[in-house]
Amino acid sequence: VDENIAIADATAESTVKAPGPKFDFIVVGGGTAGSTLATRLSLGLPWASVLLIEAGPSALGEDRINIPGRKGSTLGTVYDWNFTTTTQPGARNRVFAAPRGKVLGGSSALNLMSWDRASAPEYDAWGSLGNAGWSWDSMIATMTKAETFTPSAHYGSQGVGSTGPIKTVINRFIPEQQNSWIPTMNNLGIPLNRESLGGNPLGVMYQPSNIDSTVWNRSYAANGYLAQAGPNLHVLTNTRVAKINLAAKSPSSSRVATGVTLQNGTVISAREEVVLSAGSIQSPGLLELSGIGRQDVLSTAGVSQVIDLPGVGENLQDHIRIQASYELKGNYKSFDMLRYNTTFATEQLNLWRQGQLSMYDYTGSAYTFMNWDQAVGTNASAVLKSLARSVAGTSISVIDQKRLSFLSNPAVPQLEVIFSDGYTGVKGYPLPDTPLYGKNFFTLIAAVMHPLSRGSVHITSSNISTHPTLNPNYLSNEYDVQAAMTAIKYVRRIANTPPMSDLWVTEYEPGLVAVPDAANNDALWRDFVTNTTLSIFHPVGTCAMLPRSQGGVVDAKLTVYGTTNLRVVDASVMPVLISGHIQTAVYGIAERAAEIMIGSATRYGGGKGM
Ligand SMILES: Cc1cc2nc3c(=O)[nH]c(=O)nc-3n(C[C@H](O)[C@H](O)[C@H](O)COP(=O)(O)OP(=O)(O)OC[C@H]3O[C@@H](n4cnc5c(N)ncnc54)[C@H](O)[C@@H]3O)c2cc1C
Fold first, then answer.
1. From atom 45 of ligand 1, which residue's Cα is the shortest distance away?
2. What is the pLDDT of residues 465-475, one digit of tens each?
3. Domain limits of the chain?
4. Which residue among 151, 348, 390, 516 has its CA within the 20 to 30 Å range from the CA of 552?
5. Which residue, by CA, sits nearest to atom 27 of ligand 1?
6. Distance of CA 195 to the CA centre of its chain
7. Average pLDDT of the chain?
């Protein structure tokens, strides 16, 4: 790690230590995908100069990023872009937080470190939507390239990598109460799955986190990938790109990306390619600021249109989450102790610093993924599927049709539940001087894997400093509301199933006062859902890899339509949202993009990746 820090600090100075103002490749955004891609390009094309430009700082020594148990503490800080949504009518006009990493490593520095994969048919769907070469087989090859998994008694052998820069491990800190997880789900008929990263995630399981188990540190794009980059990679931090510069031989010919203009007006040129890796919220905005997008959006923002591409910023999809919390019996200790017992917290922090087993090691490791039949039985599942068809059955969108096909494929998960130690709900941990202050909790977080809502993100001004208008349309249709209601009812059922039911005293949230345990209380569940559903922060689809006629922004080689050498490589290219947590797919997309770009960079004769 010391070595990693030294190397990455050297690359993190805010000066271009470069052969000149021209680079062969410019990657915009040093986040999850951008850091991965830039590292692979530097190694695979050793004679090329690669510039990675990141708006945020390098923060390799930052405890709030590195210590797994401090996950979430960076949200709302200087490392977060702090985006918010428009008011969401389906969710009582609430405004949702939309955190995104503004730091080298991007959102991989802020995320909650769940490391898993969707089912094989969900990646195959990307190919069947018109993207040759994209499938489970091609994605698992590149996703595993990103990872070195530490073998565990809790896991088998499928779908994990052994040579990649990101270190993963099933967390060694397993709270006593979490031991109830697998037997409880087994009692609900959900079988143990010890191979859940291998293309079939259905079942109950322990899953890894992106943690380096030699030092018990977060392993992410900045300390994992960039530390291994070649000397031909140049990294500019605290530097924001304002637009991509485009040229053309004639008005009707394809545009050539000639470089970028920074926010301060500096122009940096690219000889070969420019890649946008600014993430699902900001890559579409950079295209729009460069004149690529919908006419109505561009004219409102005062930007002249260069390429008419109506799909830019559309097709926004995200997972929604809903949660319930339970007060543990007095004999259990939870992660909450770190917030109310400062002496204990200091002891635990010292243990972490010494590399000893510590509560600060903790990340979630207990998950379940299921289809609706498994969760609620075939009758209730049929009602949900029929509702989905009534919402989207007549839609001409290939994305809507694909999501309906996921619903009728029993291999595709529709519901995820995570056992999360400590209180991680919405109403807040009990305040000091209230009876429950100092109590310990656990939270069950459910996420709807394929909501039918889609939204958009667009610029409203030609000034890069103006935040975009982000409208995910959460809970904008009855299927999504009913799916979230089904999810939270199922969560209560899990909590009331032994052996988990023996762990707790009361349901703290929502609680039996807010939602009594009665048969006809759907109105109350609906209130709870619309009041407390959150995002689980997986926005995708806003620069979709799709045929142009279907609203696509990039082709199967990730090249922006109407350009010869401008690509988008990040979460925004996923045409349809997959289940689970999406960072492994983002790393896989970047690894695949590197293979494509290295393979086509004939001027440099390709090269050897690491
Ligand atoms: C709070 C949170 C928790 C999450 N938890 C999990 C989890 O547990 N497991 C999981 O699998 N996924 C999780 N995710 C999702 C996952 O982390 C993201 O989907 C993924 O990291 C996105 O990668 P990306 O490369 O698309 O974008 P990012 O990693 O966000 O990278 C974009 C980068 O571009 C930079 N940038 C933007 N605009 C400019 C510009 N104009 N000039 C220069 N630089 C720019 C940004 O600063 C950023 O560094 C979580 C996300 C968040 C926010």
1. 29
2. 999 999 999 99
3. 1-169+209-316+456-467+538-610, 171-206+320-448+476-532
4. 390
5. 279
6. 22
7. 95
pLDDT in tens, 435-481: 999 999 999 999 999 999 999 999 999 999 999 999 999 999 999 99
Query: Once rounded to an integer, what is the mean pLDDT over residues 164-174?
Result: 97
**Catalytic residue ranges:** 538, 581
- Ligand 1 centroid distance, CA of 31 (Å): 6
Q: Are 554 and 567 in contact (CB under 8 A)?
A: yes
Q: What is the pLDDT of residues 179-231, one digit of tens each?
A: 999 999 999 999 999 999 999 999 999 999 999 999 999 999 999 999 999 99
What is the CATH superfamily name and number for domain 171-206+320-448+476-532?
Glucose Oxidase, domain 3 (3.30.560.10)
Q: For residue 25, give the nearest of 4, 53, 58 by alpha carbon.
A: 53
Give the tokens for residue 605. 């004769």
Phi-psi region of 53 (alpha: psi -120 to 50; beta: other; left: phi over 0): beta
> How far is the C-alpha of 437 from the C-alpha of 381, rounded, in Å?
39
Percent of the chain with pLDDT over 70: 95
Task: Work out which ligand 1 atom sits closest to the CA atom of 81.
Answer: 47
33 lines ligand 1 (CB under 6 A): yes
What pLDDT band is residue 21 in, cutting at 50, 70 and 90? confident
Known binding-site positions for FAD: 103, 241
Does residue 284 have its Cβ closer than 6 Å to ligand 1? no
- At a CB cut-off of 8 Å and minimum separation 6, what does 302 contact? 461, 462
Q: What are the residues facing 554 on neighbouring strands?
A: 545, 560
1-169+209-316+456-467+538-610: CATH topology is FAD/NAD(P)-binding domain (3.50.50)
Q: Is the CB of 108 under 6 A from ligand 1?
A: yes
Exposure string of 218-250, with b = 16+ CB inside 10 Å and e = fewer, is: bbbbbbbbbbbbbebbbbbbebbbbbbbbeeee
